[in-house]
Amino acid sequence: MQLTMSAADNANAASAPSVSSWSDSGDTHTATISFAQDAVYTWTMAYTDKAGNKAADLESQNFCIDLTKPSVSISGITPGSANSSQGNIGFAVECMDTNFDTFTPVLSAVVYENGKFVKKTVEGNVTSIGNGQRVEYGNLEEDGMYSFTCSASDKAGNVYDTVNITDAQGNAKTLNLQAGDDLMDFSVNRNGSVFALDDYSMGVVNDHYIQEQTQDIVLVETNADPLVNYSILLNGTQLNEGTDYTVARSGQDESWNRYEYHIDRDLFEDEGEYNIVAQSEDKASSVAYSDLKNVNVDFIIDKTAPVFTVSGIEDGGNYRGTSRDVTLMPKDDGGKLGRVKVTILDSDGNEEEVVSDLSGDELTDYLSKNDGKIRFSIPEGINKQVAVLCADCSIGADGSTNVKAYSYKGITVSSNALILFFENKPLFYGVVGGTGVAAVGAPSVMLFRKRKLLKLAKKKIKTK
After folding, report:
1. Around 328, how many Cα atoms within 13 Å sit in the side-chain half-sphere?
2. 73-89: per-residue pLDDT in tens?
3. 319-335 tens-digit pLDDT
């Protein structure tokens, strides 16, 4: 037997493994070849037995052995750093593997944008390099907190488990990290301290109107230098550290410095407007204020439902005409109106018609243009209900809002005077009672006529 074998690694010639000695078992002859090194192996084989019979040659075949994991390298920025340079702030990441397959870097940032904290993905410039890719994040212009992760694998399914990091000063180190891990966090901080809120506090600020504080407000300050002093102001009054708020600090003088201010939720028990400002001075004598850094911590505690007044109808009211004009004036002195809905119901409480339904900006604009009043008309109908629902914008822990609701019952609007007479119970039964002495049968006759006339009147109203 003649076995010809060659090996190449990354297009460079490599040593091919040797064939072990043969072992025989009857007509079966076995040898072992161990492929322990990364390479692309190519072989052919020819065989002739002792009688001179030649077997068909084994045509050239090749396969790849890949035991090496992809290499991931990051350079240009220091993990955990607060970057305040007015020049370029950026970094590059490279992934290389002889059998490179996939590389997915993800750089995300939490920034303050259009009055809210948002999380966005930052795109890098991707270029191909030998056996891999390079992604450059050239200049990160927005102040914020940045986090970097990535996934990488080769064609053999190997994934990285270490990352080589060269920081901004050229210091290199290797960390045991893998896909799914947070490879590094850092901040861009050209204008001094960077302020942010935790998820709960961010939700409170974005909602603005809430019914209660269920957790502490957590305000986070990050600075390239340690702070020499700091304070928290609530509605302009300085709070006491240790009782009104606590501070959790992480980071060292030579690294970034992170301060978490946990402001006691019990300070927000009463209804009202609240404003929180953190102010600090760092080692470089730079003074920072959280509100001037676009982290405006303002919210309103509103536990009280809205109120409203209605003119034009009352319970049991009977009104002559083809419709009845009504004026509704909703108010929420301690908060903001969120929705006002007016519905016509039948006597059993089944919905017949929504005559007005305003919410959000549409409600605010309408009230602003109409002196805070909502005007609507009730069509003809007998023994109807007018249901008014008024809700504010104050959000509770379960997502509900404060609501004031009331149904005006027994409302009749008709152009028929006889119907109005029958629906006016005190008047009707007073008349019936007054005629009862003259004839015993009169009340029953009158009631019979009432039912008949009401049926005719209702039929007439429906056909209009």
Report:
1. 30
2. 999 998 888 787 777 88
3. 988 999 999 999 998 89
Q: Is the pLDDT of residue 430 over 90?
A: no
d(CA 151, CA 181): 9
Q: What angle do CA 238, 242, 243 make, to 5 degrees?
A: 70
Count Cα neighbours of 276 within 13 Å in the Cβ-side half-sphere: 29
Place of tokens 């990091």: 165
Q: Token pair for residue 318?
A: 């009977």
Burial class (CB in 10 A: 0-12, 13-18, 19+), 195: buried
